[in-house]
Request: fold
Amino acid sequence: MSKPLLNIFWFRRDLRLEDNRGLYEALNDDLPVLPVFIFDSNILDDLEDKSDARLSFIHKEVTAINETLKEKGSGIRTFYGNPTEIWKKILEEHNIKTIFLNRDYEPYATKRDEEVKKIADEKGVEFKLFKDHVILEPHEVLKDDGSPYVVFTPFSKRWKEELTEEDLISVPSALYFTNFVQMSNTPVTALSTMGFQTSDIEIPSGTLEDALLEKYAERRDHPAIEGTSRLGIHLRFGTISIRNIAQRAEKKSGTFLNELIWREFYQMILWHFPRVVNENFKKQYNSVPWRNDLNEFQAWCEGKTGYPIVDAGMRQLNETGYMHNRVRMIVASFLTKHLLIDWRWGEAYFAKKLLDYELASNNGGWQWAAGTGTDAQPYFRIFNPESQTRKFDPELKYIKRWVPDFQELAYPKPVVDHKYARERCLETFKEALS
DNA sequence: TTTTGAGTTGTTCGA
DNA sequence: GTCGAACAACTCAAA
Reply:
């Protein structure tokens, strides 16, 4: 018996049919393409919230792809389980020439893909990876001696030098939709099958207005204003194309483009230095004696520190799965500097709560705030919650929105005095580094 | 090899 | 209220 020869496209963090590099390459090959998605139990098992909004979002997007493909007489095959085990099954069931996929730069993903590649190799199946998640990959922006940058500004300069027009051009995967395998449509694995429920948290739309780009530089730091793009989750799961966004940023807003370069900077750091997941980038900070007071950590998590701007941020996070970027810096500085709590605690809490959670950016941001990261800024840059409020929320609009009780008697007293905490932090770091 | 300039996002103090 | 300097000195990148 002979099963028909096919190609497979494996969707992961690229949940869109348009302008998808790996999918485009697959559809341009000379065989029908079977699209596949795996709900990875290794990842799902770590989700504490059984109605996790990110999983709901992914599920919705995979279902939308399935619906679109249904109109073409095709569909997406979905699975639930350990990817390597599932690939063994898929490779048994089908006669495959090539597996097409887009590269993922996280340590777990890299290892997973290597394992699957090995299984494919043993079967004589080709395994082709493409660049889709970033404009320039970790190995494409290096110093002249071939080593990676560890300071942002020279990295960004080099990034812009290396950038070509081609890097920003969309790939027309939609032109080749007739090349999908024709099959009777199969349903997407239900959330309940995996032990989850649908979340009712709303995800912001994946659109970017020109008006936002034009005013981005002046508006992005004010948390009471909707001046940021809210595209994080869409970039995370690939429901928008980075090429499309970067192309428009390049024309309209250097500040916004810079933020995209930060995203690639931290992806590059994570790729070259995967140890940062659990360790200080700068080893000399390993001796900082974090206080790690559980009660204070809990107060921070719950938005009960007695510092309105900090509490507003944490309450926004807890209620919506989102926190404005300016406020992320403030609460991170407060946790690590004022409370002297290990940045890894804060990072883990963000990972659990943020809809737009992205390992590379979250880790980079937290290490930056703690002073342990790639940025050589001195440790005595300690955010003052009050002056940050004066600068970025002068009318207290953001605070009033999230902490309406901030002037009431029952509102918590400051968990620690600012001046005292600042001096304690300076002393602690100074001592640790000496 | 040596030198030079620079480093996301800050705060406080004193003139 | 505004401004510049000090904070403390280090590492990185590139010439």
About this structure: Residues 143-144, 149-151, 153-154, 282, 376, 378, 380-381, 426, 430 of chain A lie near DNA strand C (CB under 10 Å from a C1').
